[in-house]
């Protein structure tokens, strides 16, 4: 029995102890929330950056091809200019500009802290004035309107033209535009484009085939000369054969050239005279107009048609005008081909290396050193890989291949220079650490009980790896390959040394044996972005193309990743629910 | 306690001589095993008799699994492992340099403590030993699968879902599947390392029934923690303690009239 007083005292003591412990419980370590906030904040910040970047690219990329209205601005001095308004901003006019202004304007500028608004117009007509873009300040512009008759013509050369149709020459007869029936211009333009397409087919395809055949014959002759000497019977025979083929092919060529010439003559009889806002005229062949439209008079659906046709041109055509116009089809193709070849090269190489490291090698100091080296390889600047690829793959390996297999083509290199194959191998080297590390992790994660179960059934080590370990590690391995793929597809610097070029109209795949030409140089979306954005004559014109190409590159990588992830998830589902 | 240990050390193994027997399947002779510097088995000598169920019992860490895994050389996987003595299977030393380990393992099925079905279909799991042998004859594979699944009393439960994932089975079913896999390769010996320790009582009793059924066809060596189980299913029992074989003989004798006090204490559940 405890006395009541003692109980009271005990209660007090307990309460006191509780107070003390409450006073002590301010240690921040014991509170989870601040850390949670920090972690969550970091994540949110990262997500925000990525989302912001994607939104910027997506928005700019998506709106680029939408037809913009054409504004006609009457300037203070009475001149008129016509152009697409690109953007407006505030700027600070310099003293020499201010000096020319009337006091009212000066006062207005002073009221807004020395800033004045101005608008950038794309006035096009580069061939007439030598300028694509023009800034118009608000005090220069007297009035701005959007007359429905203004048209934009996208041309094969000199960029777009903004103006109106003055007259049209159809099959040599000149007609005023108001005499044309509705749709007449469109019909003639369609015909002219079809003719132009046909001329290109003849020149590229048919005449290209003739040239290719002729080149093959010449190379065969040289080959015989190198192998057997110029005095041999085989050489004489090959020479006779070349002569025969030469006359044959010569005739074919003449026929094709004549056909092309006829088409070109016909083409020259259709032309338009365009007039710009100031009345300056310019005559161009009808076939040199890619498309034309009058944006101020168009409804939604017409704009959508133009928009889609521009996108289609972008993904299906070759670039023109120093890559700032036309399409990027060769670059899309090159990027996809490069990435696929990269995966084909990196996957077996990385997986086999990791298999050996993890499953077969004695886990000693040596393996530890190798492992550390592999991990550090991931930190080597990618341009170094480019240098290595150029020196080892292109010059050394490629040079040797040329000497052994293509002596007849020397001194012009076949494999002995940058190309698709060497680029993909260089990127494979660059990304192989990712695959090795991921594969090793995946192999290590396969439970021991699985291996033992298999070995106890009398399976050999290799059978166990092939039938049990690898399938189970496959999702992890694929994750590594996906990471490698994404890294490789976005890499540009090393490619500039080992095979990417500004313009390569010849795709690495075509109809001539052996159909897949891995030695060819190629275009790449990443390099295209750099080229258009920073190497072209007119960075303002290239800017929208930078966004669209970036959008396309991101989309391409996204699609390839989604594909790989879907494969991985299917594999994962097969092994789902495994609890060991 | 100290006295007992002394007795163990001095006396060596106590064998209850057994009349008759269908001959030896496995002969372990003065077998020692070291994990690196640590010795896990000390001079174990015992004969596993053909066609009977031999139980290995003893407290945790006494080397039961080590001995069992030495019988089909599963210990080979461990780095720094050393052995001494001999284990003969069908008269041949399995640790001889010319011994084909893979062929050896094919003659012994093994069932592990935790069910370890492969992440494949039930069917593919069962015929795995045949796949490994490169057998692709469909009829033979199907017949083997059915025979093995009937043998492990699983056929009725899975015959309609042979091509579904084995990972969808319950724990007890998975363990019976592993037994089916072990007998599919038509082995002579079945090694079982506490096959019921991860299972619930119902699944456990099923597996025990199964072991009794299999007993006639295979030589079975089973490690168990469970005295009742050892008493129920085994013909011979080996009691191990601290890496040594203490007492070995007919199960009834070892459980009812053991020679050593230590054995008596363990089988009556006073320690372990
Ligand atoms: N791979 C290993 N490496 C080192 N020591 C081990 C290893 N496996 C088991 N041992 C040791 O060997 C002894 C016997 O283990 P084991 O045969 O698993 O016992 P049991 O199965 O009877 O519980 C234990 O002391 C254990 O710690
Ligand atoms: Mg054990």
Q: Which sheet architecture does the biggest sheet of chain B show?
A: 7 strands, mixed
Most extensive chain-chain interface: A-B, 26 and 29 residues
- Classify the oligomer: heterodimer
Number of helices of chain B: 12
Q: What fraction of the residues of chain A are assigned to beta strands by DSSP?
A: 5-15%
Q: Which structural class is indicated by helix and strand composition of chain A? A: alpha+beta
Give the low-pLDDT segments of chain B: 1-8
Helix content of chain B: 25-40%
Q: Can you tell me the number of structural domains of chain A?
A: 3
Could you report the average pLDDT of chain A, rounded to the nearest whole number? 84
CATH topology of the largest domain in chain A: MetI-like fold
The CATH H-level superfamily of the largest domain in chain A is MetI-like
CATH architecture title of the largest domain in chain A: Orthogonal Bundle
**How far is the N terminus from the C terminus of chain A?**
57 Å
Give a written overview of the molecule.
The complex is a heterodimer of chains A (580) and B (272). Chain A is of the alpha+beta class and 580 residues long. Chain A folds into three domains: 62-168 and 273-316, no CATH class; 173-268; 330-524, MetI-like (MetI-like fold). Chain A contains 17 helices and 13 strands. In chain A, the strands form three sheets. In chain A, strands 6, 7, 8, 9, 10 and 11 form a six-stranded antiparallel beta sheet that branches. In chain A, strands 4-3-2-1-5 form a five-stranded antiparallel beta sheet, with no helix packed on it. In chain A, strands 12-13 form a two-stranded antiparallel sheet. In chain A, a hairpin with a 4-residue loop joins strand 1 (71-75) and strand 2 (80-91). In chain A, helix 6 packs antiparallel against helix 7 (233-268) and helix 9 runs parallel beside helix 12 (420-444). Chain A is flat. Chain B has 272 residues and is an alpha/beta fold. Chain B contains twelve helices and eleven strands. A seven-stranded mixed beta sheet of chain B has the order 1-11-10-4-9-8-7, sandwiched between helices. In chain B, strands 3-2-5-6 form a four-stranded antiparallel beta sheet, covered by helices on one side. In chain B, a hairpin with a 2-residue loop joins strand 10 and strand 11 (244-250). The longest helix of chain B has 15 residues, at 201-215. The radius of gyration of chain B is 19 Å and the shape is globular. Chain A binds chain B through residues 363, 447, 449-460, 463, 467-468, 471-472, 574-580, and chain B through 72, 74, 77, 79, 102-103, 105-106, 108-110, 112, 114, 116-119, 128-129, 131-133, 165, 167-168, 178, 181-182, 185. The structure holds adenosine-5'-diphosphate and magnesium ion (MG). Adenosine-5'-diphosphate (ADP) binds at residues 35, 38, 40, 58, 60-66, 78 of chain B. Adenosine-5'-diphosphate binds next to strand 3 and helix 2 of chain B.
